[in-house]
UniProtKB/TrEMBL annotation:
This is 2773_t:CDS:1. It comes from Dentiscutata erythropus. Residues 53-73 are annotated as: Disordered. It comes from the Eukaryota. The lineage of its organism: Eukaryota, Fungi, Fungi incertae sedis, Mucoromycota, Glomeromycotina. Residues 56-65 have a biased composition (Low complexity).
Length: 193
């Protein structure tokens, strides 16, 4: 889904706000926990962040004042040794295999939880931009029905206010712009036409 969205957005000089919210919701739906696979939001939080029992033990070790618990970045000789090892580009070092079981599930859970945390509440300006764009209307189900109704009502109210302001200001401008034309001005206009 990232490639598809990236291709669509990069077709323009800059991504417009009206497309951002529908695309974020598309990503959120693609990575959401599937009930048919027995996945749940709570299970994913536990998968990524661990259980609450392990959090209490981690907090106690973090809050200790013993500086021996804090790992150091090493001394200068260690860094120079590592640097010399990296400079030897003719040697190949094979790393031991890593257990990758459940890696894709953890990645999917992390992506979903990040999107859910960062884009959980819709911005009213983004919703307005999406509602006013005819191309985004087919993508509009990203917002809840309540958000759609509230945004539409707010857009209608702002449009009515704008129309009232335009009617008042345009009528005032018209009255100010009506200036009697002198005979000399009429003759010069006729000559130019």
């Amino acid at each position: 889904p990232f490639e598809e969205i990236t291709r669509h957005i990069c077709g323009s000089k800059y991504p417009t706000l009206n497309l951002v919210y529908p695309y974020i919701q598309t990503l959120k739906n693609k990575f959401a926990p599937k009930s048919e696979n027995s996945e749940s939001y709570e299970a994913w939080i536990t998968l990524i962040y661990g259980s609450e029992d392990s959090d209490t033990s981690n907090n106690s070790s973090i809050s200790s004042d013993n500086e021996a618990d804090i790992p150091s970045a090493g001394n200068r000789q260690q860094w120079q040794y590592v640097h010399r090892k990296l400079e030897d580009s003719n040697s190949v070092e094979y790393l031991s295999p890593v257990n990758c079981s459940g890696l894709l599930e953890r990645a999917r859970a992390a992506i979903f939880l990040s999107i859910d945390e960062l884009w959980n509440s819709s911005n009213i300006i983004g919703l307005k931009a999406s509602i006013l764009d005819p191309q985004a209307l087919k993508l509009l189900p990203f917002a809840t029905t309540q958000e759609q109704k509230e945004t539409e009502a707010q857009v209608r109210a702002e449009l009515l206010l704008f129309e009232n302001q335009m009617n008042i200001s345009s009528s005032a401008k018209i009255e100010r712009s009506i200036v009697p034309i002198s005979k000399d001005s009429q003759d010069s206009l006729s000559a130019e036409l």
